[in-house]
Design brief:
With 136 residues, the chain is mainly α. It is 71% helix and 0% strand.
C-alpha cells in the first residue's frame, strides 16, 4: 500500500458508491440464493479492502478534496454496507444466506479491532479454551 500512489477523486468515489449499492440491492432482492450469497461475500470483501486501502492511509488526510471523498467512502462502508449485511442477516428467509451474511459481518467486525491484543476479548477466550496461558 505504501508504494502505491493513492488518489481519490469524484469518479473513484462514485464507482465505489455504485458498486456498494448494486451489490446491496442484489443481496436483498435477487431471487437466486447463490447470487445473494456471492453478492454478500463480494460486498464484504470489497468494503474490507477499500477500508484498509483508503481509510488507513495517512497521506490521504493531507488533501482537503481527498478528505471529502474519504469521508463519503467511510460513511458508505460504516453505514450502508454494514446495514445491508445486517438486514440480510435479519430479514432473509433462507438460513444459508443469513449464515453467510452473519459470517461476513463477523469477519468484517473482528478484523477492524486495530490489532490491539489487549482489547481483543475473543482472542483471549480462544486462547483460554485452547489451554494457552490464562489471559485474564
Amino acid at each position: 500500500i505504501q508504494s502505491n500512489t493513492l488518489q481519490l477523486s469524484q469518479n473513484t468515489t462514485s464507482l465505489y458508491s455504485t458498486l456498494y449499492h448494486a451489490l446491496s440491492n442484489t443481496a436483498s432482492n435477487h431471487t437466486d440464493r447463490r447470487c445473494r450469497i456471492l453478492s454478500i461475500q463480494t460486498l464484504s470483501i470489497i468494503s474490507h479492502t477499500t477500508y484498509f486501502k483508503f481509510i488507513l492511509t495517512p497521506h490521504l488526510y493531507s488533501n482537503r478534496e481527498q478528505m471529502i471523498h474519504l469521508g463519503r467512502i467511510q460513511d458508505e462502508i460504516i453505514n450502508d454496507v454494514i446495514t445491508s449485511i445486517v438486514s440480510c442477516v435479519l430479514e432473509d428467509d433462507d438460513e444459508g444466506v443469513a449464515c453467510v451474511a452473519i459470517e461476513n459481518l463477523g469477519r468484517f467486525v473482528l478484523t477492524h479491532n486495530n490489532n490491539n491484543d489487549d482489547d481483543d476479548t475473543l482472542r483471549k477466550e480462544m486462547d483460554c479454551i485452547q489451554g494457552k496461558k490464562n489471559p485474564w
